[in-house]
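Is this the right way to post structure tokens for a design question? Let me know if I should format differently. Anyway, here goes:
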């Protein structure tokens, strides 16, 4: 082999090795080999159902506390769930083993931060608590003026966002120096569930939809009620659309045009409450009155699967871990 050929071979090998290193170090939240878990809190049964959303198969239904409400899914596909009926939180692994945490007050918000800490929003008393990565539970810290905290998510800047149902507002909390906190309230009108998209906007609203700039904590735009109001769950779906749950139908908003269309659910579906999205182009609705979950192809609006779960599925949160992977960890 002559010197030129040898030099070319060495260059090729260096490029190959560098490419391998890049693939190995590629950010976890952008990789396609993430988990395929979907977790649904069944409020009536006091259980959570673990679904493989690739195969649309129920992998297990596990007992937790009374009246579970919100779920958060970690990077390995395991689940945190708040149980408002007995003031507990459970960590449930995909194999069904659980860890119990006590000392909360009607927890209705559960969110993971970038370091793996778990933030609990207590609906009664309007306080937050942290479960550290070592399992330590903090004392409750009050959110000024809050009473009915109804959800929690962490954005890409590390801010904890809370839905304050009783005061029709969202609250952004800087928890970087917890238990010292700094909070900013954003008036939005009525809201139940809320979502954060990959572009740094918080979306909420039961009728009119508020689009909030997460960095400045100001309302960037408000969309009229369109064809539907009185909704509960909301999620940022694929292709930039914002989805809302509305009982027997779903509403899909195109933020660029302001046009909202309707997705009709099958006859066997009733009481759509919560919504979640994934990185495979699907949206999921949890249907409280019919005890099932619908898997919807986001682009066409077609329901491709209806999956039975426990009684009273009542999940407004990040039930697939999609927001955690693509927003919080960004």
């Amino acid at each position: 082999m002559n010197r030129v050929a040898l030099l070319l071979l060495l260059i090729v090998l260096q490029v190959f090795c560098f490419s391998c290193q890049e693939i190995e170090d590629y950010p976890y939240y952008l990789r396609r080999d993430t988990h395929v878990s979907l977790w649904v809190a069944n409020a009536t049964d006091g259980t959570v159902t673990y679904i493989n959303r690739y195969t649309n198969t129920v992998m297990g239904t596990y007992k937790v506390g009374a009246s579970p409400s919100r779920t958060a899914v970690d990077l390995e596909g395991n689940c945190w769930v708040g149980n408002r009926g007995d003031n507990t939180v459970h960590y449930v692994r995909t194999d069904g083993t659980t860890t119990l945490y006590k000392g909360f007050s009607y927890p209705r918000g559960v969110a993971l931060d970038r370091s793996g800490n778990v933030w609990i929003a207590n609906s009664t008393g309007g306080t937050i608590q942290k479960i550290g990565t070592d399992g330590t539970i903090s004392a409750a810290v009050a959110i000024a003026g809050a009473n009915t905290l109804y959800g929690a998510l962490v954005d890409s800047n590390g801010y904890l966002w809370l839905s304050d149902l009783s005061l029709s507002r969202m609250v952004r909390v800087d928890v970087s120096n917890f238990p010292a906190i700094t909070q900013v309230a954003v008036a939005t009108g009525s809201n139940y569930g809320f979502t954060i998209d990959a572009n740094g906007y918080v979306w909420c609203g039961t009728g009119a939809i508020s689009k909030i700039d997460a960095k400045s904590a100001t309302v960037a735009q408000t969309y009229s009620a369109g064809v539907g109001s009185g909704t509960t769950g909301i999620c940022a779906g694929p292709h930039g659309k914002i989805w809302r749950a509305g009982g027997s139908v779903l509403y899909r908003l195109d933020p660029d045009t302001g046009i909202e269309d309707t997705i009709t659910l099958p006859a066997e579906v009733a009481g759509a409450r919560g919504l979640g999205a994934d990185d495979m182009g699907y949206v999921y609705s949890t249907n409280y009155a019919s005890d099932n979950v619908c898997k919807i192809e986001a682009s066409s609006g077609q329901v491709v699967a209806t999956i039975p779960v426990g009684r009273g599925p009542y999940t407004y949160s990040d039930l697939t871990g999609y927001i955690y992977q693509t927003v919080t960890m960004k």
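Format looks fine. Someone answered above. Worth noting: The chain has one domain: 3-27+37-328. Residues 10-33 have pLDDT under 50 and may be disordered.
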